[in-house]
TrEMBL record:
SUPFAM superfamilies to which the protein is assigned, alphabetical: YceI-like
Family per similarity comment: Belongs to the UPF0312 family.
SMART domains found in the cross-reference section: YceI (SM00867)
Pfam families the record matches: YceI
Lipid/polyisoprenoid-binding YceI-like domain mapped to chain residues: 13-182
Name of the protein in question: Polyisoprenoid-binding protein
Entry-linked InterPro entries: Lipid/polyisoprenoid-bd_YceI, TTHA0802/YceI-like_sf
Gene3D superfamilies, per database record: Lipid/polyisoprenoid-binding, YceI-like (2.40.128.110)
């Protein structure tokens, strides 16, 4: 299904389906491998305007303590003051400020990402993955996207030097979004 032909059918209000959405991240560890993780608790809403994508908007709230890298010790360290400082900053948020069509099946979503009380503008290119009505009568749409941020820009600065040179944790973090939205109206 081509994005251009079907996007006009998407107009409406949507809620994020956490059971079918993944919000993940990837960063370098010890300069030789990658660590992948995700956030397991989040809420989000979207308003899509099929005639004028610039009138579309998204809000996302992520619970910082839901971080999951499949390693309890590492997750506890990531929740600590060294990284996310979740007791003082329990949420990571994204609020779109601009949505533009960037291709036949793609949108660029620019917005304010707030981590640890620091807000920076980021752009996430999204690909439209399709529209379907599920067996329960819900209209669902899917989008996938990713963007790279520098964690130091958000005050997430902890690191440790390695004997062989380099650092334990990479500064660049790829944020990954596999999104399933359910139409509400």
């Amino acid at each position: 299904m081509a994005f251009q032909q079907s996007y006009s059918e998407l107009t409406g209000r949507y809620s994020l389906d956490p059971a079918h959405t993944r919000i993940g991240f990837v960063t370098r560890h010890a300069m030789v491998t990658k660590v992948r993780g995700s956030f397991n608790e989040f809420t989000g809403t979207a308003v899509l305007d099929g005639q004028d994508p610039s009138r579309s908007s998204v809000e996302l709230v992520i619970r910082a303590d839901s971080i999951d890298t499949r390693n309890a010790d590492r997750d506890a360290h990531l929740r600590s003051n060294d990284f996310l400082q979740m007791e003082d900053y329990p949420e990571i948020t994204f609020r779109s400020t601009e949505v533009t069509r960037s291709g036949e099946e793609t949108l660029d979503m620019t917005g304010d990402l707030t981590i640890k009380g620091t807000t920076r503008q980021v752009t996430v290119p999204f690909t439209f993955e399709g529209r379907a009505t599920d067996p329960f009568g819900n209209v669902r749409v899917g989008f996938e996207g990713s963007t790279t941020i520098n964690r130091n820009d958000f005050g997430v600065n902890w690191n440790a030097a390695l004997e062989t040179g380099g650092v334990l944790v990479g500064e660049k973090v790829v944020l990954e979004f596999e999104v399933s939205l359910i139409k509400q109206d």
